[in-house]
What we know:
26% of the residues lie in helices and 26% in strands. By secondary structure, it is of the alpha+beta class.
Amino acid sequence: MKKKIYAIAGSCMLIAAIAAGCDGKTVDKPCDWCGKSPSVAYQVKDGSNSYVCKKCSEICALCGKKATKQGENLLGMAIFLCSDCYEKEVGK
């Protein structure tokens, strides 16, 4: 349920930055989306880290298909989307 709420909020305020950088460090921090750990630290536009576990980075936050694109929502969280949802929300 929490994931769906974040997905809705994320879609409403989606993508302040298109390509959030990944520093690739696995850390023992809770995932921003599901709360599980370990996660990977993704550096977002403001220079802070957003933590996303492997499972949440592989599934589109909006429709549940395989995620192929990464971005950042206005809450400063790394978000992963399939190509279709990315095009709908971010544009070309």
